Each structure stands twice: as C-alpha cells, then as structure tokens.
User: Fold these one by one.
Assistant:
Number 1:
Amino acid sequence: MTKQLIKDKLNKFGSLKEPFLFVLSYNLDKFYIEKLSSLPLDIKFQINENQEISKMTKKVDLEKFPISFLEYKKKFDILQEEIKNGNSYLLNLTAKTEIKTSYSLDEIYENTKSKFKLRFKNKNDNFICFSPERFVQIKDNKISTYPMKGTIDATIKDAKQKILANKKEMAEHTMVVDLLRNDLGIIGSKVRVENFRYVDKINAGDKELLQVSSKISASLENNWHEKLGDILTSILPAGSITGTPKKKTIEILEKVEDYERDFYTGIFGIFDGKNLDSCVMIRFIEEKESQLYYKSGGGITCDSEASLEYEELLDKVYLPL
C-alpha cells in the first residue's frame, strides 16, 4: 500500500515537472516527498556538492559503543551458513552503534563535508546523513548508478593497489555490479558498465578511506519523468546495501540483523524539473529518545574474515569534519 502511494506521488510530481525532494526508507514503509518550494526549515539537503566547511571550535570527539565482536561473529557465521547452502552469495550486514559526541545533529550537518547531505526532522524521525554514494542519476534520458563496494584505510602502504588486487573485494564488487546491471535492465535498455572499479578518497574524520565504485548506465524513454515512481520502486532497495540474489538476501538479513534499518540505507534525492540525482543513505546518525545511534555495515562473501569485517563496521562510524 505504502509502495503504491510512493509510486503514485513520484509519478505525479514527475509528470508535472515539479521540483521536489524525496526521502524513502529502506523497505519503503516510510517516505517523505515534498515540493522544494514548500520544504520546512527542519529539512535541509545538499546534493553532489563539495562545499568548503567552517572549522569547529570544539574538540573533535566521538565515543563508540558497538556490538561486541562475539555478537557480530554470531551473525557473521549465520550468513556464512546461508552462503554455503547456496541461498546467497553476497549479504550486506549492518548494525547500529550507540555513540556519544558533544556535537548536535545540526552542528554535524553544518560542518560535515560530503557529496550528499541530508538533515531531516519531523515528529517521528530525527536524523542526518552524509553519504559518499550516489544511487541513480538521470540526465538526457540516461540513467546511471554508482555502486560503492570496497573500503581500505588510505594510510596503508600501496592501499589503492591492495584494494584493487584483493580477490574478495573484486568478487564482492563484481557481484554488485552484475546485480545492478540486471536492475537497470528492468527499467531501461542498452545497459553498459562505463567505468569498472575506480577509486575515490573519502574523509573519515581522523583518517581517510579509499572507496571503490563503478558506473553503470542505461537508456530511458523520452517520457521517463512521468514514470519516476515506477523506475525508483522497481530497483529499490539498492543492491549495494542488500546483496544477491536480492529478494532472498533481504529475507535473510531481516532475520539476522535484529533491528530496524528504517531510513538508513534508503535513498534521498531531488528532481529539479529536468534531471534527477539521488544517493544511498549510508553514513547515518539518528536520534531516538535523546540517544544517538550510528548505523553502518559492509558486504559479506564466502571469502570474508569476521575480524576484518567487524573492523570495517567500526571504521565506517566517523564524523567527516
């Protein structure tokens, strides 16, 4: 029912060529779609920007209270069994980490440097997102998606060469690219991988990370803006934060993760009347009952090592100030 409401509203605004913001939760049970001209003050965003930021005067601080390695290992082992049984080949395991910081969500939003940023607050939800991962971009009847899979500490010697040569990371990335090629094939034609495994540097607070991405594109019909709802709901949730095969993997993760992703790993974006741009809502902090939680995760394959995946989960809990 909610999915149909999302589809209808996106199609309506797209048909009218009305500029609007959309914020969709991971499982499409929650959404926010509003004209850009009517956005309340509690909702702010920046899309595809690399803005200069002011330096904060307070000491940079972030305390993490993650799940224990033992608890993580139990979940990890269940996923390995599912892989052995042929039920999945790649699963993006996530968890929420309680954090403490002297910054407010507003301060983090204003002082964070990230390609995609969202500050969202209403009566039910209060969160920020500073994502480096574009989901889909539509320009000139062409849709492109940019899956991000593979992370390494940039200070490691020969980090770029190591991440690109890593067989586990290569397999994981290839599976996601193949999944998203199939997703774009549902809604478009002439699907092609334009750029396979390029590397970006990401500011991760007290360190820099290298992230591996690819670009996949397809052609759309001239009236694609009239079908925005059909296009987006057909390819959600994003393959990079679920796994493959997508449907079965989502079912497994729902049982294993044991918490609600909610808006985390959903998407947000804008349609400006001509083009669309969007991101996957990773690098995500929410406030619940005066407590802050940071949600993060990473892909698990048969070649994954639990200790390294746990370390990656914690590495992704940061403030890029």
Note: The helical segments are 2-16, 69-84, 105-111, 159-165, 167-187, 228-234, 246-257, 306-315.
Number 2:
Amino acid sequence: MVELLLVVGVLVSMFVAYNIGGSTTGPAFGPAVGADAISKTTAAALMGLFFFVGAWTIGRNVVTKLGSELVTDVGVFTLETSIVVLFFIGVALLLGNVFGVPASTSMTAVGSIAGLGLAGGALDLAVMGEIVTWWVVSPIIGFWVSLVIGRYFYARLNRFVAMERSTGPLFDVDRSGSIPGVSVHRTTNRRELAGVVTVVAIGCLMAFSSGTSNIANAVAPLVGSDELAMDPAIIFGGIGVTIGAFTIARRTLETMGSDITELPLTAAIVVAAVSSTLVVFLSALGIPASFVIIATMSIVGLGWGRATRPVTVPEAVSAEEAPPVSVDALAADEPGEELPPIGEEDAADIPEPGDLFNPATTARVVLMQNVVPAIATAGAYLTFRFVPVFGF
C-alpha cells in the first residue's frame, strides 16, 4: 500500500512539474522563438536542461526550506498529506489557467504547506515571516531597478539589442564530414548575431532561475515526508518539466512569440534579466519566489521609467554658469551630446505610463496571484483540520 501511495505521490509531483514546464517555457523562450532565433524544439530542450541545472544546484536550498524548515514538526509530513498538498498546488495551477493568469506555484506551495502546518500546530512563524517579507520586498526591488534602467539606460540597451532578422538561417551546418561544422550564414550580420545570443542567453537564465525556485513546488512535500530522497526527487521533477516543455508549452511558446510586439524585445530582455536575477538571489537564500509578480512589477517600473525619462534634474555641478543637466545628459558620453528618445524615433512618441502597462490587467494579475495562494492555504487548512482521516 505504501509503495502504491508513493507511486501516486511521484506521479502527482511530476504532474505539477509538467504544468510548471508548460507555463514557464513560453515566458523564458517566447522572445527567442518569436524572433526566429531558435525552434520550439530547441527551446524545450534548453528549458529542460537549464531548469535541471538550477534545480540540482541552488534549488536544493528551497526544497529544504519548504520541506523541513517551514514546519517545526516534520512528522506532519506523511505520504498522504504530501499528496494532498501537491493536489492543492495542481488545482491552483488549473485555477490560474482558467482565469488566464499564471498562478504563482511558489506562493501556492508555501500556502498549502502553511495550511498543513497550521492544522497540525507546527507552522514556524519566523520562517513564514521571512518568506512573506521577501515576497513584499522583492517586487519593490524589481520595480525600482527596472525604473532606473528605463529612465537612464534603456536607449543604449535598445541600440545594442535591437535587431531585424535577415533572410535565411543564422548558421550554416556542413554535414559532409564525420563531425558537422557550423559557420555563420552569409546574410547574418554582427548586430543580429549579438541580439540572438542575448535573447537566447536570457531565456536560459530564466529557465535556470525557474529551476532554482520552482523545483521545490513539485517535490518539497515528498522530500519533507522522507518518502523520497532529494536527488531522485529532483530528477523526477526535471523529467516532468521537460515533458511539459516539449508538449503543452508549444502553444504558450507560439502565443508569446506572436504577441511579443506588445512588449518590445529590449523591454522583454530587461524584465527577464531583472526578474531572473532576483529569483536566483532569493533561491540562494532558500526563499521561494514568485517570478510572475516580480516580472509584473518590473514591467510597470520599466514603463514608468521610460515614460518619465525626459525630465530635468537639479543642477549637477556647483558652478553657477553651468546649464541645467537633463536625464539625457546624464546618459551621454560627452557633455552636450543628445541621445535619442527611449527606443522611439521622435520625442513626441515617448509613451505614457498607461501605454506601456495596462493598469486593469496589472491589478487582475496581482489580485489573482494573491487570491489563488489564499485559496490553497484555506483549502489545505480546512482539509487537514476537519477531515478525520488526517487526525490533526
């Protein structure tokens, strides 16, 4: 009976990982696929590889935090309770998909485990407080970092990253010999090559950051119950994510790739880089982080920074004869040098904040990102507290 329950637990865990792979591959590699830099199959392979690397290295910290530190008595983690916790995580993913908002698996996993800890009187409030504090602080950091980038550095980044795909492939592959040879195609220019490498590298960073944080959402309950060791749990989780990346993620890749014009390529790279870096940092601390919430606030901050860039700042030198220094001058290489507006051709085209992020959509995302984990927390608590079979 225990062996059968363990098989069920592993399958439910892999199902959660499968959904993680399906929901995170699009945001990670959608820009690269949309720019025809890589194929969907290559994107799925890179997703599986870098997710596993992130899970195998830094992801262990988050698994330990959720599986053994969030609750003071690991005895509440039985095989049965672990399966129920994973069930609530899976239901949360389904709810998010139904409402068209990707639910935060990290927040939902913490909520489900917290519900279990509350029902069993074993929730470590200090650890929970630490996690919640970082949940509040990290989106604020993402907002301000992105705002500064949008206001002072976006024009230069846009000139470096902006590319137009040339006709023909990026590379030529010579398969005449025993070892295939790869060379740059004759129509591929240096800017295009640099842009492609940047987009793919950012996608790999996002996949890595997803592995560092999201692996715990799929396997921490089983590891916490001591029914499954850390190494095989990560392997099973990685397999589930890879299967999801090769199957259901193809649709999200297509959506993200075709809709990428709504978020300029440079902006997508900035948001991905800021959000992924914060997630990896928090994962190193053992904190499960919500990439979607951080990314949402980064988009808002970047849009606000771009829209407020053409303003004057206080005099930067003490000399009375010095002219006022504008934001453009702060970003210029030489005094008096004018920079182009932030990615636009004409100053009149500088966007309003509302043009760069939809306040209603932003509110809906943030609301659902908090409602879904709350539902998981309440559901887990009520189940473990009042269903007699669990004995709490």
Note: The chain has a mean pLDDT of 79.
Number 3:
Amino acid sequence: MRPGPSQDDVRRQNLGALLRHVHVHGATTRAELTTTLGLNRSTIGALTADLSAVGLVSEGAPKETGRAGRPSLVVRPESARVYAYAYSIEVDRLRAARVGLGGAVLDRRDLDRPRGLLAAEAAPLLAGAVKEMQQLVPPDAICVGAGVAVCGMVRRDDGLVRLGPATGWVDEPIGAALADELGIDVPITVGNVADVAAFAEHARGVAAGCDNVLYLYGDVGVGAGIIAGGRRLTGHGGYGGEVGHMKVVRDGRPCECGARGCWETEIGEHGLLRAAGRSDARGRDALLEVFDAADRGDARAQTAVRQAGDWLGFGVANLVNVFNPEMVIFGGTMRDLYLAAAAQIRSRLNSNALGACLEHVRLRTPKLGADAPLIGAAELAFERLLADPLDVG
C-alpha cells in the first residue's frame, strides 16, 4: 500500500494550483481563490504569503470594490519580475520575446529568416535578440526558463527536431544550440509550433474552457495541436499531430516528406500557389495576394481558393470524426484560407462529418493571433515553475 501524500506534497500542490490560477486568470481576490480552489481562507492566506515571500505574487487592496465592508485582498502575478524567454522558429521568420508571469509580453524582437537556415545558424540570431532584451531586464528579475516553438517533428525527451520538411531540418538540436549561445542556466523546452499554439489558445485564448480542441496550423506544411480531455495529445515520442501527412490522394503529388498525396500538398503553400498559377512565388504574402485576387474577381485565384477550401473541409471532417472536438481553430495560413473559403469548408464539413460529431463543434480563428506560438512557447517554460513554485531560482 502506497503512503498518501505528505503535508509538504499537499502544500506544494496547492501552491502550484494557486499560482497557476493567477498566472492564467490574472489578478484575483483571496475570496475568489477560496471559492475556486476549494480551500479555506486561512490556507489561502498562508499560500499567498509563501508565494509573496519568494517574489512570485504581490497582494494589495482592490482599486474599487463598490461594496461595503473590508475588501478582500487582490493577488497579482509579479509579471515584471518573473519571466521566461520564448522563441518561435517559423518558415520565414524568427521571433523572440520576454514574457512575464501572467502572460504579458514584456519585450520582443522579430527577424527575417532565410529559408534553409539550420539550427546552428538560427541560434546565434535568436541569442542576439535575447542579449538586446537582457539590457532592459530589471536587476532583481528572475528568468525561470525558455520555450521554443518550431515547425517540425520534435522529440519530447530532448527537444531534437527529428524532421522539419518545411525548414529543411533533420535531427537538428535547436535546444542545445540555443543553450550554448545564450549561456543562461535555465531549462529550454522545445515543442512543435501547432502543439504549443494549441496549448496557448487552450490556456488563455479562444479555447479557454474547452477540453477537446483541434488547432490547425499552416505555413508550407500543415500540422495540428490536439487537446483531448483537457490534456495535450502528443503521442508516444512527441510526434503526434502530423495531420498534413494524411494521405488524401492515391499516387498524388509528391510531398516534401517523401511520400505522395499528402493533405498538405493540396492545402499548403505550394499547392495553393501552384493552383493559382503562381508556382514561382512563396511565403505568406504571396498567399495573401492570391486571396486578395480571388476577392477582386480573378477567376483562377477563385478556383484555387475554392479547391483548397474544399480539401481543407474534407480533412477537417475526417479529424472531427476521429477526435470529436468542441472547437477547431485555424491558425497560420490556415486562418487566411478559412476566412477566404469558409463556405466551401463548411459545406464539405457538413456533408462528410458524422452528425453526432458535428452538432457541437465550433470553427474559430485564434484569439492570440500570430502570437499563439510565441505565447505557447512561454507556457512551456512556465510549466516547471507552476508545478513547483518554491523551486524558483
């Protein structure tokens, strides 16, 4: 018979629950924390005192209450003092940010990324951006970690990017490369861009309160972040969600993964630009030009957008039947395609998805917009702190 949790275990669990609530929901009164966490007032008082003592939260009177009697103290995350670094390595750009506890973006840098740039070449650029930001960090601030969102198949155990067809990466150790360049003694966690964007939207975006979510992210390729039963579903090694490589056309067009007929060959960047007669173009701006041309009446662009929308709805219907989500979110270039071809997508979804799976599903765009991967990367970094707040350095 296993022994039950010790008093110290329970205390740390309660500290983590309180800090997580304030991190996600922002300033919260002690009275609200008492109700939400199901703990008594004296326990909440002791927990907030512990977190205040290590500089993770602060307490103060509310600005206005509108009520008679003594107001309940408000607990706030120390966003300016406790932070994580977040990086988003995308097909055409690199982004770095300093994100405070509570999700506030305190500072950021955006850089163009030449396609084909390897991890050893990307890491110094990101490190340079971080060193610029470090000059503005208060001397008493605490960095609790760093998170990286990257396009590709990421091995969960060590963050190795096993395969990134859109970026040309094969077995790229981006986490180790960044650690070497940064020279900061904090853990660096790496995740797939669609997975971490789903994580962000579920925590503090459009999917807050939804326990079953599918986040489709597009650029050159297409991937998915999956939330099932309130938890991220990443598979055995961390490679789950590679929905862009579902086979939809037998002996179809070649995909950058080496197979043929993958879903992303029909709805990804190359497929849509090819169908619009713009095979020599590339990048999100080129895709936006196609959507704009279709909106202005260009017949070939309209056909390309309708076809891509139909294929997007076809794949989403299959995923809805498999995962039965409450919400499907379209991010990256999938957002642009969804907005341009909503009628085709809904029509195909309505005709192909099972009625029982379809009846409650909502289609949405990200509340966090293009920052979802960056915010998600920061959430990866904060996980260790939220699991054990007293382990802060």
Note: The chain has a mean pLDDT of 90.
Number 4:
Amino acid sequence: MRGYVVFLRRPYAGRLLGGTLLGRLPNGMGMLAVVLHVRADDGGYPLAGTLAAILGLSTAAGQPVLGRAMDRFGQPRVLLPAACASAAGFALLAAVGAAPLPVAVAAVSAAGFATPPLEAGLRALWPDVLDGPEQVDAAYALDAAAQELLFTVGPLLVVAAAVVNTETALLITGALGIAGTLVVALSGPSRRWRGEPRASDWAGPLRSPGLRVLLLSLACAGIALGVYSVAVVAYAENLGRDLASGLLLACMAGGALAGGIAYGARPWAGAAHRRLPWLLAALAAGYIPLVLAPGLPVMSVLAFVSGVFLAPVLACSFTLVDRLAPAGTVTEAFAWIVAAIGAGSSVGSFVSGVGQDAAGVPGAFAGAGVGGVLALALCLLGARTLSPAAGPAVTADAAARL
C-alpha cells in the first residue's frame, strides 16, 4: 500500500483523482435516471430502455471525438463546454419528459455525446503529475479499481434524488458532471497540459495495429460486462428476490476494487504486453462458472471472483495505451478505450437478453464467458502487435516525410 500513499502525496494527485471520480458519477447515474424519469412520465419499458441505450451509445461515440479535440486544443477548452452541454441535455429531458419523442432523443443524445472525457484526460495527465512509471502504474490500478464505486454510489444517488422527483435526479446528474469537471479543469496540470504534435491524418491512434487489437479485445471484455448487468436481473427474478441483482452487482464491484488495489500495490516484473494475456485468461476463467447460476451464497462468491481481474486488466491496458498510441493522440487513444468497452457493454446487454429467451438464466450468463474467451483469443492472435517495439509510433515529422 505504500505505493498508493506515495503517489497520492504528489501535488494535485488526490485532487485530480477525486475530481475525476466526482465528474464521472453521471456515468453511473445517467441510464438509471433516464429510465426512472421516462417511467414516471408514463413511458413504457421499451421506450425507457431505448432512450437509455441511446444515452450509452452516444457517450461511446462522443468520447473519441472529444478526446481528439483535447489533444489539439488542451483540456479546459473542451472539458468545461462539454460538461455544460451534457448537463443541458439532462435538464432538457427533465423539462420535456418522453414527449415529444424527437426532443427526448435529442436531449439524451446531447447528454451522452457531450459527456466530458475526464477518464481519458486523467490518464493523459498522470505521466506529467507523477514521478516515474511505478507511480503511474499504481495510479492506473487505483483509478481502474475506484471507478467501480461509480456504479455503486451513482445508482444510490439517483434513487435518493428520485424520492423528491425524477427531474431532480436528472438535474443532479448533470450538476455533478459540471462540479467534477471544474475541479479537474481549473487545476494547474490540466491548464498546462498540451498534446504533442501529431500527424494530420483521420485515423489518429487507430493507425497503431497494437491499439486496434487492444480495442477489439477490450470490446469483448465489455460484452461480458454488459451480459452480467442484465443476467443478474434475470437471476434475481428467477430466484424471486429482487435485491439479489443489486447484491451481485456489488459483489462484482467489490471484487474489482480488491483486485485493482492488490494489483497496484506492488511493481510487476516483465513487460505489460506479456502480462495482459494472463490477466485476460484469469478474467475469462472467472466469468465461465457464472453459467451454473447456483444458489445465492455460492453465486455471491462467484460474482466477487468474476470481478477480481477486471481492474488489473484495465490497468495493464492503460499502460499499453501509453506505449502504443502515436505521438499527439494519447487522450484520444484513452477515449477509444472507454468507447470500446461501452460499445461492447451495449452489445452484451442485447446478447444476454437473447440468451435469456433461449435458455433461461444460464443462457443469460453464457455470453459473459464467451466475451471473456473472445477477449483472450483476440489478444493472443494479435500479441505481436502489442509489443511497443513491434509497432513504433509514427510522429508528425515522420508522417510529413512519407
């Protein structure tokens, strides 16, 4: 744990981590707040689910776009307007409800697409704020572990605000995004940070073969996460215990928190690209037994175990992004990671629903194991490209000479 204490004592480290977590609380609140508001406005579950899905997909689409803008224009000039635009989207939905539908769709689309890329921005700042790669690796691990709190605390805040009314829940969601963004964007490191010169091509970080492999692998891991979030609801309904879904989500989040803290508490020998396949194999192995859907006590243990290697996979992936992203594209590269996992999670939600219809609760959970195995397989197939030496970054000067 000494590594965490050392890095959190660095100037601005605690402020940046805390502000980013505060500003990202809407990520754990938005979908639930949208569903509750649409239902309170007499909208059906299909409409509520569709608008929530639009919010999630819009968020995934907006992160790389805003990340590229941050690489070009700096952080505050992108983060602050984005946070305000996202909050305005939530406020518009609070005002109009589900009708007229085109306005509601526009509201959730704006709220999602303009979500400030605080997660990507923080990871771009760590190398400038911290002292050496060991502290950066510890920061990545704690960041990956702490984000599990967003999906535990966020829904609780929504439910508490909705006691007043669902409009309040939406307004608080947007306000927290602005508050956290202000904490980060007004800090010295954020105001001083500038992206490196980059080649003027449309692909940006996607021209890195290793990064493309990493994105596809993490998208499959995202499928497993999306499957799990829907499958636990089916499990709880089948068990006749509504609270079981929340318990199992909390157990997985607890496993991820514990795994991330343990992973970052010590330095690791060897290259990150050699460590990632082992971590993905362990992650997949944790998802596969869920298909058994045993009684709640055993299922709670399996849920905890399934989360243990999630944060280490993410932390190791963040280290690889630093080394694989071409010059001047690091924020956009991290934003693509967020988008890939989010898009995969949306696919996983659909896959789990199909599996539930076809084979009940075991079918709902089956996609989690499949997603984990696919993530591992893609990583192994593209292992050569994940080595930084195998795919050197193209600098702007080099690209100009081509």
Note: The chain has two domains: 12-195, 203-386.
